[in-house]
Amino acid sequence: MNPAxxxxxxxxxxxxxxxxxxxxxxRDDPILGGPALERRSISERIASHILGMIKTGNLRPGDxxxxxxxxxxxxxxxxxxxxxxxxxxxxxxxxxSRQGGRYSVTDLSPSxxxxxxxxxxxxxxxxxxxxxxxxxxxxxxxxxxxxxxxTPDMRLRIMKxxxxxxxxxxDPVGFRLxxxxxxxxxxxxxxxxxxxxMAQGLYDVALDVRRIASAMPGLIxxxxxxxxxxxxxxxxxxxxxxTAAVRRHLEHVRDTTLLSxxxxxxx
Length: 267
Known about the structure:
This protein has 13 helices and two strands. The protein is mainly α. It has two domains: 30-113, Winged helix-like DNA-binding domain superfamily/Winged helix DNA-binding domain (Arc Repressor Mutant, subunit A, Orthogonal Bundle); 116-266, GntR ligand-binding domain-like (Four Helix Bundle (Hemerythrin (Met), subunit A)). Residues 20-37 and 109-123 have low confidence and may be disordered.
C-alpha cells in the first residue's frame, strides 16, 4: 500500500479485495491463474522464466538476482519451489550462489543460451519507432482483451504485480524481473496464445538497451506508477483508461530506451 497517499492506498485495497472476492487464493497457481500445480511443476516454470530472461539478455553475466524474499514477491510463490528452481539452475551452471545467499548469473551460460532476438539491434536494422508502434498495437489489444476475458484471479495477479513493484524502486535487476512477470500476466489475461507470443517477441527486442535504461534515476518509480494505472483500469473494466495508460507507459519505455541508445552511441 501507499501510506503517503491514503486515498490511493484505500483504492488499491478495495480493488485487491474485490478482485480476490475476499477469499484466499492459495489454491490457485499464482503464475497461471488456474488450479495449483505440484511444487515441482512450479519450480520448473520459475526456472524457465529465469532462463528466458538470460536468453534475451535481460539478465547478463554477473547480474545478482534479488533476495529470495523479493523473488517470492515477484513470482507470487513460496520459498520451497523457488529454492528448487534456483538449485536446478545452479546445477546446470546458469547461476552460482555467492556469499550472503544471493545468486548471480554465471559468465559462461548466457553466451550459450542467448537466442537471436536482439540481432536486429546489433546489425543496425533496429528502428525504435517501428518497434514501439507494434508494441502499442499489441499491448493495447492485450489490455482490452484482459478487460473482457481475464478471470478475477488473473486481474488480481496483474494488480498485485503492479503494486508490489514498489518493493524494487532501488533494485533495477529485481524490477526487470517483476516487469517481465507483469507483462506476462497481461498476456495471460488476454487468453490468446498467438497474441501473447507476439507480445513476448516484441518485449524481448532490445532488452540489452532497456536493462541499461532501468538504472536511470526515477525510471522505476514512473514505471511502477504506470503499471498501477494499467492494472486499475483493467480492474475497473475501463477500456478508454486502459488504452491511454498502456500507450503512456510504452511512450515512457520508448523514450528512455532511445535515451539509453543515444548515450551508448556517444561512448
